[in-house]
Amino acid sequence: MTRGLSKYACIETVERRYYRPAAQANAVPLSQAPASSCAQIVADKNNGRGAQQLESVDRLRLEVAVSDGREIYSWPGATRFDSRDVDAIIRQGPMGTGPFGTYLLGVFDNPGAEFRFAGDQTGGQHAMLEYRFHVPLQASHYRVKEGASWQPVAYSGSFWLAADSLELQRLTVSAESAPPGSSICTLDSELDYQRVHIGDSDTLLPKRSQLQITLESGRQTNNITTFSDCREYQAESELLFDDNPQIDTAQTTRMARAPLLLPIGLPVTLALAAPIDTETAAAGDLISAKVVQAVRKPVGGVLIPAGATVRGRITRLEHHLVPDPYFLIVLSFNRLEVQGVSSPFAARSEGNAELANELGVSLYGQGRGLWYWGVGTFVFPTSKSRYVVPTGFESKWITLATRPR
């Protein structure tokens, strides 16, 4: 079941839904609301009490593979996987690993796991066999981050096999208790599997997973992950690791031997080359824009001609519903192409500070260090469930320091 997992990579799209207790929504601010005990929160959840109000939604997209027993990630289209933990790549919001392969490794390739047969079931058109499992703390590779350290937790769950083929159909995983001080009450995952044809063979890979987290504050998050565009590494492929998060190797444009170095403080107006549709777009997606007006040297001629292309990615895409609805989209550009030559590019767009202040939006995010420095944060107020930033959307940027890469 786990054999050959490291041969494959897929695109995973994660939609994260953030909920707050509906009972608190029209009462005191959430920061002042009294916290319930985890026991009470779990009891309310199990009994159908404690209604939740959807507060916001965001979406991100990554490429995932398994290497040396752990899941590794890259932005879609990049030629290298990142060697860092996923929380160092995705710096906002809850993010879990395991759905692509390491849940299977932690259960079925773990000599410390305990199993028992739970009975036959008929689900839909297929008969299935249900098994239950338990992984004690001393055998667990399931870890929860508390502060700067990862703490192991015991977990248990069930899995269902097709009675005729003994092929895995579904897996559930629940942490039995979170580390003290983590503020987490429950961690529950559900995974569905499918047979995927890749190359000349069929293999069993995840189709969809769901991770639900309940916090002591009563808030909940629900991460829904879908997998697509799965591929097999070719024999001549090389799996590389990139320790520098600022380098994006997705572009195949020829790198200049003597790249253009831009001074700080030059104004650049950019126009999107393609629309951004919040119905389908995600953080991690590639974007490009055209330079609207020629950028001139402080003294001398043209430094960047009009029509030059800059490339980058969406780094955040969020839909906030309360108290005032709006979409927040953060863009980052890091490559400049002039006559087929690619150079580093770094710039910042200040965004509409007045509008952000009216909506209570931070234009600077909640990241660490300079992570949110070379970006543009754009806010689009609307009561609609979908917003399309049109082709040609113009924004003003100021260049930052660049260096050869």
In short:
The chain is mostly beta strands and 405 residues long.
What does this structure look like?
This protein is mainly beta and 405 residues long. It is built from five helices and 26 strands. About 5% of the residues have low confidence.
Which features would summarize this protein structure in a list?
26 strands, 18-stranded antiparallel beta sheet, 47% strand, two-stranded parallel ribbon, single chain, globular, mainly beta, Lipocalin, 8% helix, 405 residues, 5 helices
Beta strands, count: 26
Distance between the termini: 42 Å
Low-confidence stretches: 235-247, 249-257
Mean pLDDT: 85
Q: How would a textbook summarize the main sheet?
A: 18 strands, antiparallel
Rg estimate, integer Å: 24 Å
* Helix residue percentage: under 10%
* 3D shape: globular
Task: Reconstruct the topology from this structure.
Blueprint lengths: L7 E14 H4 L12 H9 L5 E16 L2 E5 L6 E2 L3 H4 L12 H7 L5 E10 L2 E10 L7 E4 L2 E4 L2 E8 L5 E8 L8 E15 L2 E15 L4 E13 L8 E2 L24 E6 L3 E2 L8 E6 L3 E2 L5 E3 L4 E12 L5 E13 L2 E4 L2 E2 L4 H7 L16 E6 L6 E2 L4 E6 L6
